[in-house]
Amino acid sequence: MLQPESTAIDPDRRKGRAAATNAASRFDPYVREGVDDGWSREELPPVRTEVADERPRRVITRNDSPDVGFDRSVNPYRGCEHGCIYCFARPSHAFLGLSPGLDFETRLVAMRGLLEVLARFRHPVGIVTKGTLIERDIDILSDMAAQGLATVGISVTTLNPALARAMEPRVPAPARRLAAIERLASAGIPVR
User: What is the pTM of this model?
Assistant: First the structure.
């Protein structure tokens, strides 16, 4: 479905972002619409990322999709700065009253400390990411992996850096993700 032109974002403001629009949430009763008021256009700053901490009432998400091999999950982050235009999670931002377009890439929600809680209670965890920030948690993950409690999946869509940049504009380069896989595996963490 094509977005109305009024939701289009100036390419100079969204440089490095995949979303070209920021349409209103499908649950939002109001719609923003750009109107030419005859004044010259103001130069706006580049779009910046905001991260809000969340204290949720519950964290378990149920899933009944036949495409996914589990029926429950915990996702401590909503939204993603990686900007992969094909991301399956984009529509979930509408439940927050935000756009699955640029809001998904710039208005993030996070819950801190989840990995420490899982480790303390010896609860298994499987992490799927494209980011290399996971290396920060090697100490916790390696202890959990030694007990058979942790696995990590790192997506490498392509080894072609130009194609990767076009598809996943803010994701670490393929070579950098391979280096993260090597570091995790060297620390005894099962990586796929």
Answer: 0.70
